């Protein structure tokens, strides 16, 4: 019988590490079957091929329809590291599309990924955290992560992981804590975040401040933030990186809503750096700084100090951004309010 | 009857009822006998559907009568001399049978012109026909199945002339010219891809920036909302406190006014308390002049008792007198009863009696009125009463007449 191979040498542009892809619609179902085969090599080759295919969103949609996610879920716990790494990579690429995210949530992939948080291979962990970060951007994803009880684990991991993974964890946490913060507070996240605020990397500092911002949107979080973190945040206001300044200002904005926060902020002398931030025309932190100063102006001492600086706010009235103008107006009215 | 085929028979005779009849070899339909053997390395998996050949044309089926033994039909191309001999014998036998059959017929046909029938004795050629044919058992074993040898390469005979050719450089194509479009496409695609990727990254970065700006706005709005909430809460609490204070103040005021009103009323009420108290006390005799009291408590009762005694003596005297008069009168009555003029003396005696009675009554009531008179005298203290008592009695008698009715009641 004749074989498909014409000669003993393989054609020059075939990648031996990838499984051959069937034509058209049959590509994904065939890869699905190959994934279930007991042979390691077949599985690896199928995963490599799948990884390339899945960059196309239509293939993502078809893959979810064919039922890839269950196979991938079982492969997550495979003993071979390449398989795990490729599986997580595929899941990450799928999570970048909305269809993929929805599919991942529905198939309960989040709980399966929990096992991989302790994986010895760095790449697997990094991919897992990337997946979590992507999922957390979606509201249902954030809720799913909260329900799976991942927050204490993630907070714990913050202490031990590598820097880039820490950034991913901080992003995930900030998105999840926007929804609910009680679990994180219970595990003492604030102390850990306070340490991170002094980290050498600017990205980590700004992300940690962002997480504190999200914690501060909840009332119980506000009280905890007020107790400990305000002095550190005020020191961060003078940081060199504008991102860090912006996040720190935002965190302060929420922390000063409560009266005790305002007092501690005044005590830490937050007003001068905030005024500097407001005066800068192109600062990202402008809006947050104006808002924070509005909060502080509700205290009598704050009002006294700020009465001298109303011209800074007058300048802000000329800002092109609508929100900044409004905020400046509100600030001026609060400063000039007489009881 | 290949024994290997046994298991398949049972399925084919499925329709047969379960009869207690056993076959040595069950009847079954046989598939066609293939012409060639199957190749040794053939795919066993590829089973073609079994073709059943027609029974009538199957070479394996025995034809003819089954009550005589049959010889295997000749199959091989190169029959052995033994077989040739056998065939010859078989042919002869067949011929012999045919001939006897001809002779058995009642009439032989007329000889054709120019020929004549001749009786021939075939003794020399006859063979003994016995029941049992001499037979010899021979075995024949074919060699193990040999593979069909592969067809030898067909090398057609060489025809034509040998010609050689050689392609020199530059004859087929000019590389530099030809490669240009290919290069253009390649580079163009690569650059396009790179541009796309860069654009995507930029788009992503913009999306992130947009998201970040939106997040900031949202946070600012949220902070504003919470600040206003906080403010509102503070104002409300302040209002509550002030209201409470005001309420308390009002209540205190009310209490104070009530107290003042009560105090004024009480003052007013008690204003003439003291005078009235003193009046009452004075009236009820708490403030008394001790001498007066003394006089009243001691002197006057003694006086009264003395007066009473005196009066009693007088009354006694009067009653004595009355009784004396009465006895006298009675005696006179008795004395005059014998005379009819007695009634004239009775009339004045009867008139004197009512007047005495009235006098008595007046005397008795005098004694009773003394204490009342004392009371009236308290307002008008009269130190010397004894001498004027007689006068006062007479005065009071006229008064008593007026007040008698009241007192008798």
TrEMBL record, chain A:
<dbReference type="Pfam" id="PF13646">
    <property type="entry name" value="HEAT_2"/>
</dbReference>
<protein>
    <submittedName>
        <fullName>RSP14 protein</fullName>
    </submittedName>
</protein>
<dbReference type="InterPro" id="IPR011989">
    <property type="entry name" value="ARM-like"/>
</dbReference>
<dbReference type="InterPro" id="IPR016024">
    <property type="entry name" value="ARM-type_fold"/>
</dbReference>
<dbReference type="InterPro" id="IPR042856">
    <property type="entry name" value="RSP14"/>
</dbReference>
Automatic annotation (TrEMBL), chain B:
<keyword id="KW-0966">Cell projection</keyword>
<dbReference type="Pfam" id="PF06098">
    <property type="entry name" value="Radial_spoke_3"/>
</dbReference>
<feature type="coiled-coil region">
    <location>
        <begin position="218"/>
        <end position="245"/>
    </location>
</feature>
<dbReference type="GO" id="GO:0005929">
    <property type="term" value="C:cilium"/>
</dbReference>
<comment type="similarity">
    <text>Belongs to the flagellar radial spoke RSP3 family.</text>
</comment>
<dbReference type="InterPro" id="IPR009290">
    <property type="entry name" value="Radial_spoke_3"/>
</dbReference>
<keyword id="KW-0206">Cytoskeleton</keyword>
<feature type="region of interest" description="Disordered">
    <location>
        <begin position="342"/>
        <end position="409"/>
    </location>
</feature>
<feature type="region of interest" description="Disordered">
    <location>
        <begin position="96"/>
        <end position="115"/>
    </location>
</feature>
<keyword id="KW-0963">Cytoplasm</keyword>
<protein>
    <submittedName>
        <fullName>RSPH3 protein</fullName>
    </submittedName>
</protein>
<keyword id="KW-0969">Cilium</keyword>
<keyword id="KW-0282">Flagellum</keyword>
<keyword id="KW-0597">Phosphoprotein</keyword>
<feature type="compositionally biased region" description="Acidic residues">
    <location>
        <begin position="396"/>
        <end position="409"/>
    </location>
</feature>
<keyword id="KW-0175">Coiled coil</keyword>
